[in-house]
Amino acid sequence: MSNPVSDLILGFQGLVADVPDLVQPLILALAGAVPFIEGEGAAAIGIIGGIPPIVAAIAGAVGNIICVAVVVLATSRVRTAVTTRRGAIEKPPTARREKFEKAYHRYGTPGVSLLGPLLLPTQFTAAALTSTGVPPMRVLAWQAAAIVLWTTVITLIITGVVRAVA
């Protein structure tokens, strides 16, 4: 059986190889917007495909940040609409929400944002933070920092591996 994420990665690798050099960063930005691939995965796809590491990292991170910004803004609007309509009535929290809120109270927005990509795509973490009432600009700032950090780390690792193997 094929893995959907592996299929997506292979699809993006093939697409990057088949388009002109000027279009390749756009393909990586699209890959960066996909949950589970994200900025770091897009950078790895590009580097393995022969794109300069800095170009691959920037394209992947930008695509990931744009997608996260859309998710945060949409989640913020939904939260505002729901809380305005519901007023003061609160539903009991689900077990998943309680787990997230416990992590949030322990690590705060910076910790959840920076450590979140180890467990969940940034889009999911950003939506969860925004839905709990964290201000959207705070979520965006910390998610952007996390995306840049993780994309940089993976870019450095992949670049080192590619140079060692070549």
From TrEMBL:
The chain crosses the membrane at residues 54-76, 107-129, 141-165. It comes from the Bacteria. Keywords: Membrane, Transmembrane, Transmembrane helix. The keyword Membrane applies. This is Small multidrug efflux protein. It comes from Microbacterium testaceum (Aureobacterium testaceum).
